[in-house]
Amino acid sequence: MVLSYIGWRVDEFTCDGQANFWFKFTNILVNTAYRMSTSTTSFVRLFVYGTLLSASKHPMAQNLRQKTRLLGPGFFPGRLYDLGMYPGAVYDPVAQSNVFGEVYSFTESGWKRERKTLDDYEGDEYVRSVVPVQTADGLVDCWTYLFKPPTDSLPRIESGRYFG
């Protein structure tokens, strides 16, 4: 069985018998297995689109990978801007373009421990907001960091994908 959505193809789908599903997604950038839990434990989702992506070598991205679970790819309607060493995203529910990234899952306690560190990392240029993100499982609400300053003079990343 081959499933697909928005440029991603699900190549494999398996269950380890303990309510954990494995999906193998393929796109032009990555070919990685993502583990998705069906546990009833409460989780907080974080959508990342820049230096915190799983392919990033940034120490903060490495820290995130150690303390969370990568659920897989996602996107929201909006625009992505090139700020030099990192991108900035603007959520716009009526945009004809999308911002692509990945969704991570924190336990409630893990989120409480890590959100100040993430807020400090993102700095004053960003505001932490909840946005609806399209994933393989449908729309899910995720925290993300949206760029606050005016974007009129900033170059857009037309693809909506940050390549670092």
UniProtKB/TrEMBL annotation:
Gamma-glutamylcyclotransferase AIG2-like domain sequence ranges: 46-162
Keywords: Transferase
Pfam family, one: GGACT
Gene3D superfamilies linked to this entry: Gamma-glutamyl cyclotransferase-like
Protein name: Gamma-glutamylcyclotransferase
Taxonomy of the source species: Bacteria, Pseudomonadati, Bacteroidota, Cytophagia, Cytophagales
Transferase recorded as keyword: yes
CDD domains: GGCT_like
Transferase among keywords: yes
GO MF, any single term: transferase activity
